[in-house]
Write a structure and sequence with these properties.
alpha+beta; four-stranded antiparallel β-sheet; elongated
Length: about 170
């Protein structure tokens, strides 16, 4: 019975780290690019395609909608262009194991040529492990891990094992 209780406690202590969702908020101005999740994802706010939202200091019957164009680049260099809306239509999309949603857009229409600022919510959907790697991902990850270890001037046993596991994925 004690063994079962210990196993249950061990599972509960590990589970939050294995299944926790990470959520980042990025605030990006038009034309800017920001990085999330330690470089695993880059998001560039390209433009506002349309903005029919109610201007500031005006009472409107309908709140209106703004549609933005965003370029997302994942850690392998894959690119996807997304269109998101503030009110009607899709407010987000998924790409590279992440859910990306438009949370806010400022300023409301007031004058021509205003530089917009968008806030995005980015949530990691999947936790990557060595078993999830494709053959093309493995060499990239091995080099990245070796560079990080060299930069820290320490390649400990855990890092060595991770590099060996990643290389093993390539040789299968």
């Amino acid at each position: 019975m004690k063994t079962l209780i210990l196993i249950f406690i061990a599972i509960l202590s590990i589970a939050p780290g294995a299944f926790a969702r990470s959520d980042h908020r990025l605030t990006v101005r038009t034309g800017e690019q920001k990085i999330a999740f330690r470089g695993e994802l880059k998001l560039e706010f390209i433009s506002v395609l349309e903005d029919s939202r109610c201007p500031e200091d005006v009472q409107c019957v309908w709140a209106g909608n703004a549609r933005v164009k965003v370029k997302v680049i994942d850690w392998r260099g894959a690119v996807k262009l997304l269109e998101m809306n503030t009110t009607s239509g899709p407010k987000g999309d998924q790409f590279g194991g992440y859910a990306i949603n438009l949370v806010g857009l400022t300023p409301k229409p007031k004058r021509k040529g205003a530089r917009y600022t968008a806030t995005f919510s980015i949530e990691r959907l999947v936790r990557r492990g060595v078993a999830d790697l494709s053959r093309e991902d493995a060499p990239y990850l091995a080099r990245k891990l070796e560079r990080q270890a060299v930069a820290a001037e320490d390649l400990g046993p855990v890092e060595c094992e991770a590099v060996d596991n990643i290389r093993g994925t390539v040789n299968r």
